[in-house]
Amino acid sequence: MIRIHEKTLKDLEFFTVLNQVSEHTITTLGNKAVLSILPIESEEQLLLELDYVNEYLSSFDNDNRIPNHGFETIAKELKLLKIENTYLEVSSFQKLVSISLTTNSILKFLEKFNEYYPNLSLYSKNIEITKAIIEQVDVVVDRFGDIKDDASPLLSELRQSINKLKGKINSSFSSALNTYHKLEYLDDIRESVVDNKRVLAVKAMYRRKVKGAIMGGSKTGSIVYIEPETTLQYSRELNNLEYEEKEEVIKILKELTDYIRTFLPLLKNYQDFLTKIDVISAKAKYAKSINAILPEFSKERSMYLRDAYHPLLYLTNKEKGEKTFPQTIGLEKSSRIIVISGPNAGGKSITLKTVGLLQTMIQSGMLIPVHERSKVCLFDRILSDIGDNQSIENHLSTYSYRLKQMNYFLRKCNSKTLFLIDEFGTGSDPELGGALAETFLEVFYEREAFGIITTHYSNLKLLANELPYMQNANMLFNERSLEPMYKLVTGQAGSSFTFEVAQKNGIPYSLINKSKKKIERGKVRFDATIAKLQKQRSRLEKTEQSLKVNEKKKLSEAEKLEETNVKIQKKLESFQELYDSNQRLIYLGQKVNDLAEKFQDNKKKRELMAELFRLVQIENSKRKKVSAKQKRAEKAKEKQIKQEAEKKVEVIRKEKKAAKKKEVKVEKPKPILKVGDRVRMHDGKAVGSIDSIEKGKANVNYGMFTTNVSLDLLELVEAK
User: DSSP class of residue 668?
Assistant: First the structure.
């Protein structure tokens, strides 16, 4: 049986979570039900509740969304149905019809999609689907909320008589209106309505001349409202008929109520079912908002929360647009107690509360925000001592209150207990309080209880290091900036960084040094060693992360290379097929060419035809029998391969042309021109010989004429 004290629920802010979940409900009863959620005592029932929420959560990600479950509470109607000789109003019947329609639609849906929602479908099978309530109310009440004329023969007869009488009243009133209007007894407005009756607006001076009942007058007294005598008789008859109609309607409603009364247990089931669905829906919507899942349940007593988020902190940071740091922590038989140490504001208490709150949530039928590889187990009792518990009402100090809590823990702690203690042993003399805390921790350890504590006491860190089933842990700090990294690492105690933090905050080094001398040298060395180890751990963490990133990159590149290799292999196979096909065609072409040469020599047609026919038969015997559709497919494939090959060839040709253009021409060393060499100009074709060279210019003789040209503009054709 699961027992979690109300104080623990408050310490872990469980009721704040319930308030957030209740915001996702859509009914009043659902809201109340959520706010009254407590840890579920039966393990079997708990697992079912978690399955319900998980199935509802899955409906958000598929096309088969569970129908709307909104309804108006029928608590008042259920109370009235329990009392004999009472009857429901039309509005109440409409609520009953609405709740029946809503329940039926969900029941039919779950019956249809029982493969998607097996547990919800099984839960709904105990509730009857019936149209009897809907059909019976439909016989009596129309869609506008009025009693139908044919609800009973007497009502139909009465309403016909009423309609006829109203016709007579209107006719007689119109006659009186015309008569007195002609006599000019009426005011300009002529008529009005008083008590739902048409009346004549008679001028006050003529009121004695108009026969009828005076129904009132205007504020000024200038008009008197009179119901004509001719309509009075009909009005009395109408009142009688309307009274009878009202009595008949009440009789019909009583009969309908008596019929519905037989469905009282079913209607109560309907309301309970829809309330339950509203609670499940709210839990699922909340789970979606915090990315919660249903983790695996461990068969043994062990838990492993990977990338666990504190839901309240996660949602607060989400609104602010800030990052929330998840924690990974595990408890099992080999390490059932964890001692978290380290400086303040590093996230120790949040880690403690995260574990406690998530454990309480999962044991209350709620999904939790952890990684899918996480594992959870159930505890019979969760004990907590978190925060400043000074009691003004009971005149107890923090330490006295904590001692009372420890006494309670000692009475209740066993192997099926999870205890959570923040700042264990504080509130008294450090030496004495630490010694007492160590004794308490040894008792919890001997009783094989599971737990997490946070502390600054060195003796508790040493104890965790000495005992085999206890483990140290610390919150990582940046060794340079001394800023918290909000990451829990197990296996090593954390330094409080007392002197380092003091130095960072501007405390003179001389005072810090003086303080160090005041305490035992061994304790300072112990804390310094822990601090050094923690810094090394931090650097190793960074190296590990860097290696993981590189490993991921290499795996990604290897996958890409594999994909490229597969693609190249496929293309090689396609090109091999194309090559084989072309080789076959070349072979056939050579054969046909040989036959053509032979025919040219001997001119024997019959021999040629026989050879050709034999060649065709040989080729056809090699072919597989394929359908016309397969032939078309093969031709299309062959065509595609050819097109791809041509594209590749075209690209290669273009690349070669571009490469040729880009090739830098290797210039030969320019020859030294001498007298007698045959030369020509760079941009000319005529060849001449050099007669003389003077000051970088040459006299070139072309036979018909000579010209003086710069040596740079000449190129050698033939040396002398």
Answer: P
